[in-house]
Structure formats: structure tokens, C-alpha cells
Amino acid sequence: MKTIFAAMCMLVALGFCTSTMAADDKKMKKEAPVDGSVVTITGMMAVKAKDAKSDVVCRLTSGKNKTDLMYNLVATGEVAKQIETMRAEGDKVKVTGKVTGDSIAVDKIEKVVYMKK
Known about the structure:
- By secondary structure, the protein is of the alpha+beta class.
- It is built from 2 helices and 5 strands; from the N terminus they run αβββαββ.
- The protein has a 5-stranded mixed β-barrel.
């Protein structure tokens, strides 16, 4: 009787762990936004890839995990200068723009400031 009870407890525990792990995997993966949609994403900027197109100013990571999406920020004129300045200073930013594939045509960028406790 004790053996059956122990086996049942292990099966219940195993089922619980499996369902929890699956839920965590879903939370970690972010869905890519639909092409043509306007999004606002917060993240850190990095230098653009060597093989990037000429209109790409830099890259934006959308989170802390390696599985988070990375976008090329596309801009010209004053917005491009603003992006480059913020990237050089290492600012965390909030970017708003239109998504096309792995690129965001930046309409607005602002520095994210966290209040210190």
C-alpha cells in the first residue's frame, strides 16, 4: 500500500514539474510583433553589425535573455543623431516605431530613467 502511495505521489510531482516548466518556457519567449505594426520597446542599444545596411544606426536588445529579440534601429537626420548619442552614453531607451522584419523605423526615442530608492 505504501509503495502505491509513494508511486502516485511521484507521478503527481512529475506532472506538476513538467507543466510548470512548459509555462516558464512560454513566458520566456516573446512573440515577434506583426510587420507594419507600430510598437514601443524598451531595451539597451549596441553597435550595429558590420554587414548592416547604411540606414541602420544601431541594434536594440529587447530584454536580458539571449532568447529575447534583437532589432536594427533605422533612422535618418536628427533622430539618427539622437540615437547615436544615446547609444554612445550607454542609455537604456524606449523606442517607438514601425516594425518591418527585424528592423524598427524609429519615430521617437526617449531615455529611460529609473528612480533610485
